[in-house]
Amino acid sequence: MPEYVEKASDMGPQFRVPMTRKRRAAAARRGNQGVASGTVRRHGWRRTSADEQLLEFAGAFGAITLRHAAEYFYGGVWETARKRVQFMREAGLLERSDNLRWAGTVVYPTASGMAAAAAPGLPELRALVPSEERMLHRLLVAEAALRMRARGVRVVAERQMRAVERANDSGQAAETFARFCGVAVAGSPAAGEFGVSVSPTVDGNGRARWFGVPVGMAGELHWPDFTAIVGGRIVAVEMEITHKERWRMLQVLRGYKLSIEAGHVAQVLWEVTPDVQMQLEGRRGADGWDDGLLADLGFLESGQVPDWSVKGRPMVVRAAQGRDEGVRYALSQKTLPPSLRCSYRLWRQWLQVWEQDASALEFEEWLMRPRTMTQLRAMSQ
DNA sequence: CGTACAGTGTCTTACAGTAC
DNA sequence: GTACTGTAAGACACTGTACG
User: Fold this and answer.
1) Which UniProt keywords apply (predicted)?
2) Which pLDDT tens digit goes with each residue over A55-76?
3) Residue A94 CA to nucleotide B16 C1', Å?
């Protein structure tokens, strides 16, 4: 005797579909939503450690794309990523949005999902629906963090830093979290292992800051987009894709300079668009090299073309790049001159032509070369 | 009461196929 | 092209039973 399930339909009043194993499992997931979903049998799914890691990361960084999920959490297997995300959605742990075509599917945890990923030692975060305007920046940050994480580097999201620094103490909560993340706090195991010692920056009120970077006269805090803990030391990562006013940028750079001198931040890694790169590094002028802000502050030699092959500089600048195709597209649209901006679809066709061309140039440089557009127009006719 | 083991059902995964 | 569904194979967890 087969089981049936009643299903509403716009084709008629109701019709009955056989209760297959799939449908039973989906019904179980929907009937067992919440923090504990997937922890025991009969919930219609069992959560895996990859699922929990995804929830934790997406919660800390705000959102990731389904492509990121596949690449960094499910061994590059698209089908598995899609299925796991669907399970977590039915279980009420994850939400998805496909409002931004270029981003594909973007996923972020619900309040239950955040709670499910909570682990001892990690700061508690509230669920947040990511805003669409800031999505490119958010996904670029997440992607850079995922790449580092894949190399075994511990990363701390801005939200996590803010959460621990919000504590109403003189910095103990942040210090505890820094130790937990492997920062070489004096006397910690990491300090012994790596033979280094990291101390906090002291802000205007005499309070130790382990993650926030004090800037300006009033002593506000600047937050890196994320922090990587490399060999016990703190590397601040800044994903700058919008040109900041000079005074604002200087303020941030001066803040970092003090933190670096305090033995707090070991290095600042700037991943930037060409306009920001010029602001930081300077540019070729009529008679030699015109200094940028980094030379003004003594992070680069004055009047010289920056040489990034020198290792161990406290400030490093490199071009922001997306690996995810959609992220790459959105970034491309930001850096290309208006006349070369186009739809996602057309952009992908151009990218294919570039790949076949096996040009030594980067895609954007290739596109800006005068004869490329003529060539592309000729092909589309 | 504890252990070993077979039987059974549950869950994951990859592949093939379908809908829009 | 993207998202979803169905299926088969295998891994795994749970249950019941036999046995000491």
Assistant:
1) Plasmid
2) 889 999 988 888 888 888 887 7
3) 28
Q: What percentage of chain A exceeds 70 in pLDDT?
A: 92
Q: Which residue has the higher pLDDT, A366 or A175?
A: A175
Beta bridge partners of A282: A291
Q: Are A372 and A359 in contact (CB under 8 A)?
A: no
A101 touches strand C (CB under 7 A): no
Report the sign of the C-alpha dihedral through residues A331, A220, A145, A39, in that order. negative
* Contacts by residues A341-344 (CB-CB < 8 Å, ≥ 24 positions apart): A344/A101, A344/A102
> Sign (positive/negative) of CA torsion A32, A38, A42, A44?
positive
Q: Which nucleotide is nearest to A20 (CA to C1')?
A: C6
Look at residue A248 and tell me whether its pLDDT is greater than 80: yes
Q: Which residue is nearest to nucleotide C14 (CA to C1')?
A: A41
Domain A20-132 in this protein, CATH class? mainly alpha
Please state, rounded to an integer, the average pLDDT across all residues of chain A: 84
Residue A345 has pLDDT above 80, yes or no: no
Specify the nucleotide whose C1' lies closest to residue A23 (CA): C5
Residue whose CA is minimally distant from B13 C1': A80
Which nucleotide minimizes the distance between its C1' and the CA of A82?
Answer: C3
Distance A41 CA to C12 C1' (A): 11
Angle at A50 between CA A46 and CA A52, to 5 degrees: 70
Where do the structural domains in chain A lie, given as residue ranges?
A: 20-132, 150-319, 336-379
Secondary structure element (H or E) that encloses residue A294, with its range:
helix A293-296
Residue A283 sits at the vertex; the CA angle it makes with A278 and A289, to the nearest 5 degrees, is 145
Structure tokens at A29: 């997931």
